[in-house]
Amino acid sequence: MVATENHSEISIPIIFLKNPSAGHTDPYTSHFVSHPIPSQSSLYKPMYVPVLEHYSDTAPILDMLSQSGQSKGPDQVNTSGDFPYGGLIFTSQRAVEAFASALDSIPIDDVHDINEPLRQLTMPLYAVGPATAHSLEEIKKRHMPCCLIRGGEQAGTGDLLAKLILQDYNDFWSPAAGERKKPLVFLTGAKHRDIVPATIMSAPGNQRIEVKTMVVYATSESSSFASDIAKALVATSTAHIRWIVIFSPTGGESLLGALGWLADSNNTKSSLRRANPETFIVTIGPTTRDYMKKTFDFSVDVCAATPSPEGVRQGIEEFMRTRVVW
Which of 125, 126, 107, 124 is nearest to 115 (CA)? Predict the structure, then answer.
């Protein structure tokens, strides 16, 4: 896609190094197309270049869900009281997509036995950040209407989500005398940080919550990234300025190579960066920003204050106001 000029409106390309959300308009697209640049006749033009390929493993999810359909008697409908877990934790949209895939792949013979009890569950679904929470909304609507989505905007990082869970779940859970507090399930990828389960399980005394980690997807670097980003850069080469949003260290390293901003054969320096002065880089948070600086001596232009569409946009526009780029 090439940035185009339409009457007095100028499109500013913004390339997101991630997969767009499946099943609905990506929150980054929704936010950026609905927020024209202040005091300018310019509009953002979102594009997506996936850095990673994801492979869902629905088997452990289906095994877990089958337990929601285990009735105590032939005429009983299972309730939250019979389900062995007290809630689910999602820290990525990929985990949500794996969960959705599992729900959509329930064998026809088991649909009634699993879906009907699932609709009766009244447990929390914890989500880090607004994008993950938004992805859960459709699952809640279609399959788990009695469940409660917690976190989202109020928990933009794993650390914040863990603290929220400790407060919320201990308030939510009221076990009968002598009854054990039900564990939570942390749905995650093969490569993940353990900050959420580690924080929750290291809480003192009766605040502690048991967490079962369930690996539901794996990732690898996209085999087509080099060609895909090259096409995106060519398509936006005529733009006055363009922004590229990095969501992970893997995305950052791949991008520098594609831009030709690595200055030595060991891929450790980035002194060639100013060869493309119209290209600006923003990271979704400090982890990727710090990785880029430590590994490649590369300073990004913006680090979003919050890992959300609003945080990215606000960071970009504050940068532009202070630099008088537009």
Answer: 107
